[in-house]
Write a structure and sequence with these properties.
The complex is a heterodimer of chains A (about 110) and B (about 110).
Chain A (H helix, E strand, L loop, with lengths): L3 E4 L2 E5 L4 E7 L7 E6 L6 E6 L5 E4 L2 E6 L4 E6 L8 E9 L2 E7 L3 E6 L1
Parallel strand pairs in A: 2-11
Antiparallel strand pairs in A: 1-3, 3-8, 4-5, 4-9, 6-7, 7-8, 9-10, 9-11
Chain B lengths: L3 E4 L2 E4 L5 E7 L5 E7 L5 E9 L2 E4 L6 E3 L9 E3 L8 E8 L8 E2 L3 E5 L1
Parallel strand pairs in B: 2-11
Antiparallel strand pairs in B: 1-3, 3-8, 4-5, 4-9, 5-6, 7-8, 9-10, 9-11
The chains are: A mainly beta (about 110), B mainly beta (about 110).
Chain lengths: ~110, ~110
């Protein structure tokens, strides 16, 4: 119930291509869905987030698509660049509940020059 | 600049030793968290605190202890009871309630020698 599933585990994309990472959840009480980007040896940094009252949010080259009925959300990175190479984590949380901030297992993205 | 400072960046522990990882934030955040990250895996919650002088166990609290005597500080002690402490430890903070995302520190890599 508390898990967030994430796929693929790793992803290799050519420069300029589109990177797509998918996540799925079970707990319908989740009401906040952020994505984090982590470079090696660093802490994760908030990239973009969405709430379930919208189906899509775009910030620059990064877009979250959210499907409430399917309980799925995905991150799309347009025009992927080598500098985007990092590990990406999706997460889900319940407002007002500090323990229920659940992370997916992560996707290691490599963008080839 | 506001942020979270974790120290030390690298820490080596001998068998049977207790070690303490420091986490300080100047973001005026109420909630603070400790996560453990193992290679190729997601983040697992060790302890969290939503208010000074109060904290709760996360999913993997055994072998760890924390204190929250000041709003700015949330140190983590890895005790000798933690049988497999080698990992990357991340401290995070938020305004509370889990609804605004986390700010992470840069992490401490702990190695047992």
């Amino acid at each position: 119930q508390q898990q967030v599933k994430q796929s693929p585990q790793s992803l290799i994309v050519q420069k300029g291509g589109i990177s797509i990472i998918n996540c799925a959840y079970e707990n319908t009480a989740f009401d906040y869905f952020p994505w984090y980007q982590q470079f090696p040896g660093k802490g994760p940094a908030l990239l973009i987030a969405i709430r379930p009252d919208v189906s899509e949010k775009k910030e620059g080259r990064f877009t979250i698509s959210f499907n409430k009925s399917a309980k799925q959300f995905s991150l799309h990175i347009m025009d992927s660049q080598p500098g985007d190479s990092a590990t990406y984590f999706c997460a889900a949380s319940i407002r007002g509940d500090g323990q229920n901030f659940v992370f997916g297992p992560g996707t290691r993205l490599s963008v080839l020059p | 600049d506001g942020g979270i400072t974790q120290s030390p960046k690298y820490l080596f522990r001998k068998e049977g030793q207790n070690v303490t990882l420091s986490c300080e934030q100047n973001l005026n955040h109420d909630a603070m968290y400790w996560y453990r990250q193992d290679p190729g895996q997601g983040l697992r919650l060790i302890y969290y605190s939503q208010i000074v002088n109060d904290f709760q166990k996360g999913d993997i609290a055994e072998g760890y202890s924390v204190s929250r005597e000041k709003k700015e500080s949330f140190p983590l002690t890895v005790t000798s009871a933690q049988k497999n402490p080698t990992a990357f430890y991340l401290c995070a903070s938020s305004t509370g309630g889990g609804s605004y995302g986390y700010t992470f520190g840069s992490g401490t890599r702990l190695t047992v020698v």
